Every structure is written in structure tokens, then in C-alpha cells.
């Protein structure tokens, strides 16, 4: 009986103490000097195991292992720098430009890839044992991105500035170049990049050297500064003038109110669960308990951003939606919902553009998900550890 009384008194004392301590401090005290009980990376992996094992079936274990291994990079060549030495140096290290030389088994088959602007490459197909009179296809673009072949570890030296201070290449997940390639920017186009910072895809778009006017936007002012610094290191001042480029920090969801029916091409590379980062890094991880609501709201935010992009593009123009997540909720579901809202609320009809010519062309560099229901998805794979990157392209019909 005495023991029971002691316990009761003790419990009351603890309760009193808790009432005196603000909740925030209690949480702090609980974590003070220790690691969180559930690190965000563990929470991310638990979430991924539950959802992606259903979504990807027997492919999930392989994708999971790859996401936990070293990610591969590509070197996006900066056409605004003096590139000869840079390209020779990359080639001497055994890298190849995956855009210009998509060689490998199946190159002949890709010659027949319909519906995409391919043109002949004067180089030969000897390396894959195809007659040297047959030229491999390549995209009509100036974008060049070098990757190390096969299982090599992708280690690039830091890029050095040329005589004019322009850096020779920008390192990024090579799969992140695909949305810029798929957007298919043509000579004289005006382009909007709705969520642009820190600027990898903006740089890739600029490498086309075809854009008449580029508007780069990101809601985060600090990230927009970072983007500005990237541009200053890679693009000559003459091209960063107000007539050719505008850098803004608007909420992209409002773009339909700011500027409608305007751009030839719009890139909507939305904030997402950044799956590889979430599985690997606790810092700035969206699976932290404190960010649960933010994470749950992502599909809604993504839908609103895509819808704004659809409103901003001109009739006949094209919008590319991309994420670096495997989640169907953030990928296909968002595209379907935005298409529905565009039709119901704005009377805008859209057509999904077939990206299979792109996937056929680059199937030796990237591992694409088989038979996607809508859009294309790069799956991380131990032999091609890029991505994940999801992309879906929409053409506005009216
Ligand atoms: C995936 S990142 C973009 C990466 C960038 N496209 C690149 O290739 O370097 C998503 C970006 O969306 C921005 N963002 C988040 N909400 C936004 C909003 N409502 N409007 C515009 N940008 C937003 C974030 O600040 C973040 O920089």
C-alpha cells in the first residue's frame, strides 16, 4: 500500500512538473544531447517500403539498394565557356556525352524512333559493332552531358574557370538533364522555369542557345540568390540582360494570374519528397515529424504549380512536369488532377506527349520504369545509378 502511495505521489510530481514546462521545451529536453529516436531517414525508408513495394513490386528491392548507394553524376558542359579543352579532358578520362552518343545495343532500333527531332551524327557505330556507314541518331540540341561508362565511379574533378571566368561544366544527376531535353526548346522560344533554384535545369535549358526569352522563378529568395550566383558563374553578362532573362521570386501558383497564355515552353520542376536525399540525409529531410503536414500537402502544392504552368503556356505550347520522387501520388496523380482541373475550371484541353522516343534513345544510359501509366520514370539501378526522375509532358490544345 505504501509503495502504491509513493508511486502516486511521484506521478503527481511528474505531472505538475510537466504542466510548468512549455511543450516546446519538453520536446527539446527529450531530444537534448541525443539523436531523435526515429531519424528522418528511417521514417522515409519505412514510408517508401510501405508504398513503393506495392507500386514497384519486385523492382523495389533493387531500387532501394541503389538509392542507398552512391548516386551518379553527369557533367553538363557549359557552351558559354571555352569548351574544347573541357571536352577533351572529359573524354580522356573515359567519359562520353550521353546526349550526342547514345550508343549501345539497340542503336539501330532507335533510328526508327518516331516523333522526335533526331538528326545524323557523323560519328560511327563501330564501338557497338554496327556498320560504320550507319550514323547513330541524336537529338537536335546543343545540350551535352558527360557520364562515366558502366560501373565506373562517377568522380569528376571540380570545374575550373576559363579566361573569361566561365566554369566549364556543372555537376548534376545526369537524369536531371532529361526534363530539359524532353522540353524540346526550339529556336526563338520564350520559356518559363516556374521552380528554378538552384538552377541545374535552367542551365541545361540555356545550353540549347535557342531561347529568345527566359523567365526563371523560385519562391525562395535565398535560393533565387543561389541561382543568380550559378548563372553568373556559367552565363556571360550579355545574356543576363532584362531583354533576354527575368529572375523573379513569386509564388509559382499565382502565375496564371500574373501572365496567362504566354510562353512557348514551361518547366514545372516541383518541390517533392526528393526520395534519394530523404533516404540518405537527415538534414533538411521532409520526413522529419515536424514536417509531416508540409509533406502531406505536397500533392496539392504540386497540382497548383502544374495548373499555373498550364495557364502560363500559350495554346499549342508545351509544359513539362517533373519530380525527383517515385511516388505516384506526386507524379501521375498530380498530372491527372491538374489536367482535370484545367478542363473543368479553365476550359483548357491538354494532350499527353509521348516521351518514348526519348526513353528509347537513352535506354542504355538510364533505367526507365517499364510500362508507365502516364509519363516516364527513371529508376535508380546499381548499373545506372541516376534518378529517380519522373517527367510528363503536356501539350496545350486551346
Ligand atoms: C526541385 S526544386 C527545383 C530544382 C531546380 N529546378 C533545379 O533543377 O535546380 C523545387 C523548388 O521549388 C521551389 N518552390 C517551392 N514552392 C514554390 C512555389 N509555390 N512557387 C515557386 N517555387 C516554389 C523551392 O524553393 C525549390 O527551389
Automatic annotation (TrEMBL):
Q: Where is the active site?
A: 324 (nucleophile)
Q: Which reaction does it catalyse?
A: a cytidine in mRNA + S-adenosyl-L-methionine = a 5-methylcytidine in mRNA + S-adenosyl-L-homocysteine + H(+); a cytidine in rRNA + S-adenosyl-L-methionine = a 5-methylcytidine in rRNA + S-adenosyl-L-homocysteine + H(+)
Q: In its UniProt record, which GO terms are filed under biological process? A: rRNA methylation
Sequence ranges assigned to domain SAM-dependent MTase RsmB/NOP-type in this UniProt record: 97-397
List locations, semicolon-separated: Mitochondrion
Which Pfam families does its entry note? Methyltr_RsmB-F
Print the keywords alphabetically. Methyltransferase, Mitochondrion, RNA-binding, rRNA processing, S-adenosyl-L-methionine, Transferase, Transit peptide
Q: Entry's Gene3D superfamilies?
A: 6.20.240.40, Vaccinia Virus protein VP39
Q: Does the keyword Mitochondrion apply?
A: yes
> Where S-adenosyl-L-methionine is bound, by residue?
195-201, 218, 251, 269
Write down the PANTHER family for this protein, in alphabetical order.
5-METHYLCYTOSINE RRNA METHYLTRANSFERASE NSUN4 (PTHR22808:SF3), NCL1 YEAST -RELATED NOL1/NOP2/FMU SUN DOMAIN-CONTAINING (PTHR22808)
The family assignment reads:
Belongs to the class I-like SAM-binding methyltransferase superfamily. RsmB/NOP family.
UniProt-recorded name of the protein: 5-cytosine rRNA methyltransferase NSUN4
Organism from which the protein derives:
Salmo salar (Atlantic salmon)
Amino acid at each position: 500500500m505504501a509503495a502504491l502511495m509513493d508511486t502516486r505521489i511521484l506521478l503527481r510530481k511528474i505531472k505538475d512538473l510537466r504542466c510548468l514546462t512549455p511543450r516546446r521545451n519538453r520536446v527539446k529536453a527529450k531530444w537534448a544531447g541525443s539523436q531523435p529516436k526515429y531519424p528522418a531517414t528511417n521514417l522515409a525508408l519505412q514510408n517508401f517500403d510501405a508504398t513503393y513495394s506495392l507500386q514497384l513490386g519486385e523492382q523495389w528491392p533493387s531500387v532501394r539498394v541503389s538509392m542507398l548507394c552512391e548516386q551518379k553524376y553527369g557533367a553538363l558542359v557549359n557552351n558559354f565557356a571555352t569548351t574544347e579543352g573541357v571536352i577533351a579532358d572529359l573524354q580522356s578520362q573515359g567519359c562520353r556525352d550521353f546526349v550526342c552518343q547514345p550508343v549501345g545495343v539497340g542503336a539501330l532500333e532507335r533510328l526508327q524512333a518516331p516523333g522526335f527531332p533526331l538528326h545524323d551524327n557523323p560519328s560511327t557505330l563501330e564501338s557497338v559493332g554496327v556498320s560504320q556507314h550507319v550514323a547513330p541518331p541524336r537529338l537536335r540540341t546543343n545540350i551535352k552531358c558527360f557520364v562515366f561508362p558502366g560501373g565506373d565511379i562517377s568522380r569528376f574533378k571540380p570545374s575550373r574557370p576559363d579566361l573569361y571566368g566561365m566554369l566549364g561544366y556543372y555537376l548534376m544527376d545526369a537524369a536531371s538533364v532529361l526534363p530539359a531535353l524532353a522540353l524540346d526548346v526550339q529556336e526563338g522560344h520564350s520559356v518559363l522555369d516556374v521552380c528554378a533554384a538552384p538552377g541545374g535545369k535552367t542551365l541545361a535549358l540555356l545550353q540549347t542557345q535557342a531561347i529568345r526569352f527566359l523567365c526563371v522563378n523560385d519562391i525562395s529568395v535565398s535560393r533565387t540568390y543561389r541561382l543568380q550566383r550559378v548563372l553568373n558563374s556559367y552565363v556571360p553578362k550579355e545574356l543576363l540582360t532584362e531583354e533576354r532573362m527575368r529572375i523573379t521570386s513569386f509564388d509559382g501558383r499565382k502565375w496564371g494570374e500574373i501572365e496567362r497564355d504566354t510562353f512557348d515552353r514551361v518547366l514545372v520542376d516541383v518541390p517533392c519528397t526528393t526520395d534519394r536525399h530523404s533516404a540518405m540525409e537527415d538534414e533538411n529531410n521532409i520526413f522529419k515529424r515536424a514536417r509531416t503536414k508540409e509533406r502531406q500537402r505536397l500533392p496539392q502544392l504540386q497540382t497548383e504549380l502544374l495548373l499555373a504552368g498550364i495557364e502560363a503556356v500559350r495554346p499549342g505550347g508545351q509544359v513539362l512536369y517533373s519530380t525527383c520522387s517515385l511516388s505516384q501520388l506526386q507524379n501521375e496523380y498530380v498530372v491527372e488532377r491538374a489536367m482535370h482541373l484545367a478542363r473543368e475550371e479553365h476550359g483548357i484541353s491538354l494532350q499527353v506527349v509521348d516521351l518514348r522516343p526519348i526513353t528509347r534513345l537513352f535506354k542504355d544510359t538510364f533505367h526507365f520504369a517499364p510500362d508507365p501509366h502516364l509519363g516516364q520514370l527513371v529508376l535508380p539501378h546499381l548499373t545506372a545509378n541516376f534518378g529517380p526522375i519522373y517527367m510528363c509532358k503536356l501539350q496545350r490544345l486551346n
